[in-house]
Amino acid sequence: MCMKLYLINEHTMNISISSILLSLGGKCLLNWALVFLQRNHICKSFLGVFSVSLAVVDITLTLSVTTLHIHADGYVILLGLKLTKYHICLLVQILGQVYRALLWPVVVLAGLDHFCTVTQRLQPTGRARWIFYLCVSCSLWYLTAVYVFLLSDFIPVLEDAPYNQIHQCWVFHNSEVLQVSMLLLLTLGCVMLYAGYRTRLLKNPPLKDQITDQSRTHSRGKVVHQAVRIFLNTWALFLFFLATFFLLPVEIPAYLGLNIAWLCFLNSLLIAAVLCAVSPSSQLAQDLAVVPPDSFCKWRF
């Protein structure tokens, strides 16, 4: 009993079903607004296609939870199964765990996609690109669900009460989004400091055989500083909110942690990191098509 109470107090929060519905509805509106904003190039990157799939999953969850909540009898019969308010809490907890497990795979795959775009390696075109990203996104959802159900230590936490008396749900909270964001920001900061350090080292007059190396280093330093400046000019306010959530003891429900607003921020952050790491300055100046699509940052060098 003590172990169970510790699990509930440390890793879950008790939220009313009405609040869950309101927050899911707001999340869906924000998701589809951002999808519409990026409609011209939403299918040209892995993160874009995954964002659409996330919006579809979120609205499916929202409609399911709403149907179960507003039904007069307190339950719905679907394919011979009696679905009650227990299943509202169960669905929210399961999707929250899936979202938590998706964070790092999405970061890694999006980073690889941006790297291939900038370096122009293994880039399909047109419809083939969209189909490829769709297959990767569907596979990622499927494998993550398999992991949560079969391999993880996920155990649902449900109320010990009749289904018609349930008005609140135990929901797992999510701190991984803040941790991933801060880790990537620290990585970007380290790359920037390294580039600045290398530029200062070559301020002295070089020998003839060092002129090319100095030119390349200064060029890399310019790309790094411009990329960081463009990123910070766009996302400074969002970074302030992230820092506030990180410093204050604010708990984010797991079903809200993975959202398209954060994916847009992640997209710009990964683009900045890849440009700083690769920094093909001459290619960027001649061909802006090598920069991955971004609806928020205007990557101009």
Q: Uncertain runs with pLDDT below 50, 5 residues or more?
A: 1-9
End-to-end gap: 61 Å
Q: What order do the SSEs take from the amino end to the carboxyl end, as H and E?
A: HEHHEEHHEHHEHHH
- With strands numbered from the N-terminus, the spatial order across the biggest sheet is 1-4-5
Gyration radius over CA: 23 Å
Instruction: Kindly state the percentage of residues in helix.
Output: 55-70%
Task: Provide a descriptive summary of the structure in words.
- There is one protein chain.
- By secondary structure, the chain is mainly alpha-helical.
- The longest helix is centred in the last third of the chain and has 37 residues, at 211-247.
- The protein is 69% helix and 7% strand.
- Strands 1-4-5 form a three-stranded antiparallel β-sheet.
In short:
The chain has 301 residues and is mostly helical.
Task: Please name the defining characteristics of this protein.
about 300 residues; mainly alpha; three-stranded antiparallel sheet; 5 strands; about 70% helix; globular
